[in-house]
Amino acid sequence: xxxxxxxxxxxxxxxxxxxxxxxxxxxxxxxxxxxxxxxxxxxxxxxxxxxxxxxxxxxxxxxxxxxxxxxxxxxxxxxxxxxxxxxxxxxxxxxxxxxxxxxxxxxxxxxxxxxxxxxxxxxxxxxxxxxxxxxxxxxxxxxxxxxxxxxxxxxxxxxxxxxxxxxxxxxxxxxxxxxxxxxxxxxxxxxxxxxxxxxxxxxxxxxxxxxxxxxxxxxxxx
Length: 222
Prior knowledge:
Layout: E1 10-16, E2 22-28, H1 39-47, E3 54-55, E4 60-61, E5 67-71, H2 77-84, E6 88-93, H3 98-107, E7 116-121, E8 137-141, H4 150-160, E9 166-172, H5 179-190, E10 194-198, E11 213-220
Parallel strand pairs: 5-6, 5-8, 6-7, 8-9
Antiparallel strand pairs: 1-2, 3-4, 9-11, 10-11
Helix pairs in contact: 1-2
């Protein structure tokens, strides 16, 4: 079901930033999995604010001026966070989610100063020339979900990433149904062309982390 633009279709989830301001992320009462903010998206959004990336007193801001593409953005929460930190972000998802992404960009525009954010439609496995040259970062939260989307997702990562691209993947490990097999299939395909490094919880946001939610840094093999 498509995301609608009627005000009554939404409810708001606030995500507090380290500076005390809050992202206001609208979610849909009805719709597919992309219409709500999943826990992995919050964990990833808060990870972007950790000191390894963003520590203004120490003069550190990896995001400032960086190009970022978010895949399977859903509500756009992760991409919006990156834009508020100074990145130049393109959030992507299927056509059905484009309205919701646009709504959330407008909702948080006042928090974005040096960064920027736009929403574009991208179906995994299809042409990515609109998103090239390869971005500095590709962000993805809870995209390892549907079995039929695994091969197209990995193909998109191959097409989109260059030798310097860091893919940051955050996903909730699920043990029910086909989920373990889907995760296994994803990593088997991924590891043909990429290396993966898991980020320990000690390097994640101390409040927004969970043993079931994993953050990986993924890079092309050289």
